[in-house]
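Repro case for the chain-ordering regression, as requested:
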Amino acid sequence: MIRRLLIANRGEIAVRIIRACRERRVESVAVYSDADAHALHVEVADRAVRLGPAPAAESYLNIDRVLAAARDSEADAIHPGYGFLSENAEFASACEAAGIAFVGPPANAIAAMGSKTAARALAQAHGVPVVPGEAPEDQSDRALAAAITRLGLPVLLKPSAGGGGIGMKTITEAAEISGSLAAARRDAVAAFGDGTLYVERLVVGPRHIEIQVLADAHGSIVHLLERECSLQRRHQKVIEESPSAALRPALRARMGEAAVTIARAAGYRNAGTVEFLLEGTGDDARFYFLEMNTRLQVEHPVTEAVVGIDLVQAQLDVADGAPLPWVQDQISGRGHAIECRVYAEDPAQQFLPQAGPLLCYREPSGPGVRVDGGVREGGGIPVHYDPLVAKLVVQAGSRADAIARARAALARFVVLGVTTNIAYLQRILVHDHFGAGEIDTTWLDRQHDHLIGTGEPVPAAAVAAAAHATGTGGAPRAGMATAAASDPWQLMMGWRANAS
Amino acid sequence: MSAMLRFTNSDGAGQGGALEIEAFDRGDGSVVIGDATFEVSPAGKARWLVAGPAGRTLVHAAWDGETCWVHADGRVWRLARAEAGRRSSSTTDDEVALASPMPASVRAIHVQAGQAVSGGDVLIVLEAMKMELPIRAPRDAVVAGVRCSVGDLVQPGVQLVQLA
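-- result from build under test --
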C-alpha cells in the first residue's frame, strides 16, 4: 500500500493528484523548482522538496534530483503526472530499481509505445487498422504509381527518412502523380540525403478520437469510452469532449476493443490512452491507430465526468495491487462533458505565451462545473513552463446543455493581469459548426480569423468601475505610479499597451 | 474628492486602440460618462456592482501601474490612462523591436559591438515557454552595444541591443 506519494510534477495536475491523496489519506510530497517556491501545489501538499533552479532540465526533468527527493522524503511511490518524466522509460526503471513504485505502466510498455514505428507494427500485428501506407522496394515511378493506385487518391508522399512534416506532398489528381513524384524525390534527397518515398493514404477531414483504458496487475483491462479531441492547434488540444458526436455505438465498441487489444499486446498496466484518427461519420466511419499515450492525459476529467470513475484514484488502486472493481459491461457514459483549456496566451499574437501576475483570479463554480487549476490570485504564471492556467470541465445532460454551461462558466472565469484565450474559447463554443459537431483536426486553423477578437468596445460600466477604483485607493493616482515603475511586471504591462 | 480621468481602451485580445473615454468620478460613489450616470458600489475585493441606464453589471477591476484590467460581461479589457498612453507611444521603434515581448531567457547572441547588421538579421535568440523568440534588427545599422548575456533572464520593455 502506498503511504507517501511524491508527485513529480507541478501546476494543476500536481494539485489534482494531491487532492486525491488527501481523500485516501496518503501523505503527499510536492517537488518544486525555484520558480515555483510559492506555487499552489507546494502550498497544498503535506511536504515539499526543492528540486533545483527554474529550468526544467535542472528540476522537473532531472531524474536524479526527483529520485533523491523521493528518498529524502521517504516516499514509497511516485506519480509522474503528464509531460515531464511521465513517458520516460528510463525514469520508470530507475524508480523500480530504487524500490519506489511508479504510478504508471511498466517501463517496457512505455518503451514499446515510445517508438511510433514499433507501435504501428504492434497494432498491425494484432489486426488494428493503421493509416494505409507503404514504401515500395521498387522506387521507380511505375511502382510508386501502382502503390498510389492501390491506396487510392488522395495520398500523401513523405520522405521515408524524414519526420516532422518536412518534404510532404499531397496528390489529389492522377495527372499530378509523375510531377509530384519527381519533386518529392528531389526534396527528400535535399532534406535527408535519401530519395526513398513513403506513400500514405491522405485522411481527409480527420477527427482525433482517443480511448481511455485502464489495466490492473491481474490481467484485467477495460476501456472507459472515448474523448473527441479534434479541436487542436499545432497538436495542442484546446477543447475536448465526450461522447464524440461522430461515433455510433457499434463503432465505439469496435474502437474500444481495438484499444484494449493494443493495451494487452503492449503488456500494459495502469491508465493509458490509445489515439485514433477517424475518417467519415456514422456507420461508414473508419478508424486508424495513431499512438498510445502511456500516462494520465490532461483531458482525463472529461472521462471522469461521463463514466463517474476517478482516474487518479483508480491509478493509485492499481499501483496498490488492487484488481479493477468493474468489468466492461458495467462501464457506461452518462450525459455530456466538455473541457476547455485556459491558456495564458494571446490568440491575436499567434498564441504567444504570456507570463505575468494574477492580479485577480476567480474560478467559476456551480452545478456541473469543475475547475482544475494550479494557480491562485496573487501568484503568477512563470515564464519557464507550459502556459496552461486551468481546465474548465462541465457536465450536463446533453451536448447542447454542456455547451451552454461551458459558455456561461467561461464568462464568469475572471483572470486579470495576464492575457488568456478565454475569449477565443467562448467564440469556439458559440460557432455554428461547433454547435453542430462538424469539426475535424483542421477546423481551428481554418476558422482562425473568425475566432480572433475584433476590438469589441468596452462597456461603459467597466470604465465607471475603473474610474471609481482609482478614486477609492484601488490604484495609485496619476504621478504615483512611477514609484513602482522598476517592477518588471509593470514594464511588461507597458509593452502590452504599446503593442495594442 | 472628484477627478476627471481619460481612458484608452485596448482589449484583452491585443486589439482595440485609440478609443478615448472620459469618466468623471464625483467621489460620492457615482461616475459620469457622457450624459450617463453610474452608481458604483463595492462588492468584495476587486469587485464592483455598477448600476447604469442599461441595468446592472458586475465588474472586476484591478490596477497594475498605469493599466487597469477590467472584466465585465464575460470579457476582459485593458484600460490605460490616456496620459500614460501618450507617453508610451513616444517610445522609438528600436525600443520596441529590440526588447523581448515577454519575460524570457537569452539563449544565443549573434552579434557584438561594432558589427554591421542588415534589417531582418537575427541579433539575439530568446527562449520562453519552450519557444524560441528571435530578436531581429529593425533596420540596417551598426551594433553600438549588447546589453545582455547568454543565460540572462530578461524582462519585456528592456532594450537588449543598442544600434548606432
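Ordering looks correct now. The domain at 3-88 of chain B is CATH 2.40.128 (Lipocalin).
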